[in-house]
Amino acid sequence: MPSGRPETPPSVSDLKDEGSPGAKHPGEVNDIPDATPPSTPPSPPEGNKAQKILLLVSVFLCMFLVSLDRTIISTAIPAISNEFNSLNDVGWYGSAYLLTSCAFQLLFGKIYTVFPTRPALLASVFLFEAGSAICGAAPSSVAFTVGRAICGIGAAGLFAGTIVCIVYIVPLHQRPKIQGAFGALFGIASIVGPLIGGAFTSNITWRWCFYINLPIGGVAMVVIALFLEAPPRDDAKLPLGKKILKLDLLGTSLLVPGVVCLLLALQWGGPTYPWNDGRIIAMLTLAGVLLIGYAVVQATLTSTATIPPRLVKQRSVISALWATICINSGNYIFIYFLPIWFQAIQHATPVSSGIRLLPVMLSTVLGSILGGFLNAKLGYYTPLAIFGSCLASIGAGLLTTIHVAAPASHWIGYQVVYGLGLGTCFQAPNLAVQTALPQADVPMGIALVFFGQLVGSTVFVSVGQNVFSNQLVKRLAGFPGFDVGLVTEGGATALVEALPEGVRAAAVVEYNEALRQVFLVGLIVTCLAVLGTVTLEWLSVKKPQAEKLGELEKGVDGKGAGEQGAEEKGAEEKGAEEKGAEEKGVEGKGAEGKGIEEKDGEKKGKK
């Protein structure tokens, strides 16, 4: 029944809600409220500039520690294994960290969408610090491995948490510069990590490679606890039990063991056990069953899914995931096998081979910084993503041409071309996720991108290792004195040195050809990254949040911005028509009432 006064016209946000997939339309019952994203929080508030700088520094420190932790251990491993007499456990020092960081990455993405950002980020820092303390004080190899596993869990939370923190601190149009600095941070950590680890191991003790994390992480925790302010969530008042139920416990119970089985099979297959070994086959089979079960859970239980279907239906998310898997897979292949080329082909020492890798490291840092500033200037990340992936592909192609007598100008120049391309496009997937998704879905999107980075690089390093081993066996089988066992058990130079001196020169040529086949794998996956970058949507990072509502909705239901705008315009016109009809009805009713009163007055006068 009309109230007698015109209704307030719907706001733009109301129209947005009506056009969203989760809105209830006449005759439609929405019984899965959690299948739609929560409302988009507002843009970062204008707060105290000093507080923001402190927060940014703390977030950068957290990410630097995580990046450093992945490389600082490389030069400390000999001293650690000597102290614990644990040469057979060396592989687990890296694998334990990698397994847990991969397995828990998506879970932390879900945690950041359900729980407040500050306690979730603090818990991640605490886990990383606790793992570092255990590693530093470890009395045995087993305790050290447990500490590395805990560090990996904390790192999984920090990967996603630091980017989520930046989303709340930095406006979208300023994030390309910050993302560029993040990429540079990874490169710098890769350069200084082994140097710091070697300095601690030689001059103090290897334990300080992990103790160094404690004071820095402690300061970061204090700053985050005092100054990080994140917008409240729609479900902030939900009881703890209901929040835990939203964490997709069933999916996580399938994903974690599935990822662990897959990574263990890839780590052990070839070097440790033959690929036809029953243990490898069993782990691969179990991984396949568990991961298929996880996919079924995500598709059916959409209200609590870790990866909601709406996320994988968004074009930019799929393109970003594809690009980041390919970019990082190619990068790890070259970073892993170029030092082997320097040592086996050019007879460089391990330290010298690390120094010869500086061109790609430094050019990646430079490309990342330049890419951040250019993305901010252009307002679009897609052009540089395409340019960077194409340039990296050219550099990767050049690296596949190196030969035994390649001069320094070649392998330095090729690394620079590859590194500049890599740095330019390295952060584009993260920016794409932040720009294309509603802010409430950004944590899950970021976690998905990091998950792709970790799993992709692990898979393709294993692929490269198996290609390398098979090529060596194939090419050196006819040489006198060749022993297949040296391929899996010998060092980078032991295989060639074990052959008679008269055939070593020819063996080095074949060794070089085997490495070129591995570099060809890196070239292929780097070229495939172009497919991801060219299909990224052209979304602006300069538009204010309010102007991006149509584009953000596209990340949810796949509609184009123009189509969404047309719907909003139609809704506005419809609302205006309804308002006019109501006002007309009110006026008509008023006129009708007035006419009746006048008629009654005339009758009364006649009487």
What is this entry, summarized?
The protein has helices at residues 12-19, 49-69, 77-84, 90-103, 105-114, 117-137, 141-169, 175-203, 208-211, 213-227, 240-245, 249-268, 278-300, 309-312, 315-345, 350-355, 358-378, 382-399, 408-425, 428-436, 442-476, 485-489, 494-497, 504-534, 549-557, 561-606.
- Helix segment tally: 26
Q: Oligomer, anyone? A: single chain
How far apart the termini lie comes to: 36 Å
**Within the CATH hierarchy, at the fold level, what is the topology of the largest domain?**
Growth Hormone, Chain: A
Q: What general outline do the C-alpha atoms trace? A: globular
Largest sheet: none
Measured on Cα atoms, how large is the radius of gyration?
Answer: 29 Å
- Overall structural class, as computed from helix and strand content, comes to mainly alpha
Query: Proportion of β residues?
Result: under 5%
From the coordinates shown, what is the CATH architecture of the largest domain?
A: Up-down Bundle
Name the CATH superfamily classification of the largest domain: MFS general substrate transporter like domains
Low-confidence stretches: 1-45, 544-574, 576-599, 601-607
